Amino acid sequence: MTKAEFDKQMADLDRELSQVPAAPAKTVVPPPAAGPEWWSNQNAMTMSAVVLIFGIVVLVLCAGLMRSSRPSPEAILRVFGTVLIITGALFLVVAGYTDQQVAPVMGLLGTLAGYLLGKGSPNEPTPPRTDKSDK
Fold first, then answer.
1. What is the pLDDT of residues 70-106, one digit of tens each?
2. Distance CA 110, CA 10 (A)
3. Which of 94, 98, 99 is nearest to 43 (CA)?
4. Which DSSP letter does residue 20 get?
5. Which tens digits make up the pLDDT trace of 110-131?
6. Does some domain include residue 98?
7. Engineered SS bond to 116: which of 25, 45, 47, 81, CB 3.0-4.6 Å?
8. Does Transmembrane count among this protein's keywords (predicted)?
9. Does 34 fall in a domain?
10. How many domains does one find in the chain?
11. Residue 54: which domain range?
């Protein structure tokens, strides 16, 4: 196909399009998102506040119980850190964030929980190593 033939076909298409009457534009309104009717913004705010208040109550209870026993700083960090991580994760889930928004934060909270609960105390004796290559 040459450039002249292409230009002629385009001119013919332009003429045909100019002869077609223009239809009035219709406004298309998308249907409302189908979500659960029982979960409104007010309900999400109420549940989020309940989760945060519950977390504060648990922290106060932990502080009261730990006050009499005088635990080590590491034990205090483990208890309070675990309670804060669980409360934060529950808050994010209840607040209505999507899984794509919550996934990175859950990964970070899981990393923190693994660090807090996984590291051993320096006072704990380590089991003796048995080297199987000596036998």
1. 888 888 888 898 899 889 888 888 887 788 888 888 8
2. 62
3. 94
4. S
5. 888 888 888 776 665 556 667 6
6. yes
7. 81
8. yes
9. no
10. 1
11. 41-119
Residue 4 lies in a domain: no
DSSP labels, 79-112: HHHHHHHHHHHHHHHHTT--HHHHHHHHHHHHHH
Closest alpha carbon to 94 in 50, 36, 31 = 50
User: Whole-angstrom Cα distance, residue 114 to residue 112?
Assistant: 5
- Interacting residues of 26 by C-beta distance below 8 A, sequence separation 6+: none
Written as one string, the DSSP assignment of 50-74 is HHHHHHHHHHHHHHHHHHHH---HH
| b/e burial code for range 40-52 (CB count within 10 A of at least 16 → b) | eeeeeeebbeebb
SS3 24: coil
For the four alpha carbons of 62, 67, 68 and 71, in that order, the dihedral sign comes to: positive
Q: How far is CA 52 from CA 48, 85, 94, 98, in A?
A: 6, 12, 10, 19
> Six-digit token pair at 111?
């990393």
Q: CA–CA separation, 44 vs 50, rounded Å?
A: 10
Say which residue the tokens 């669980």 belong to. 86
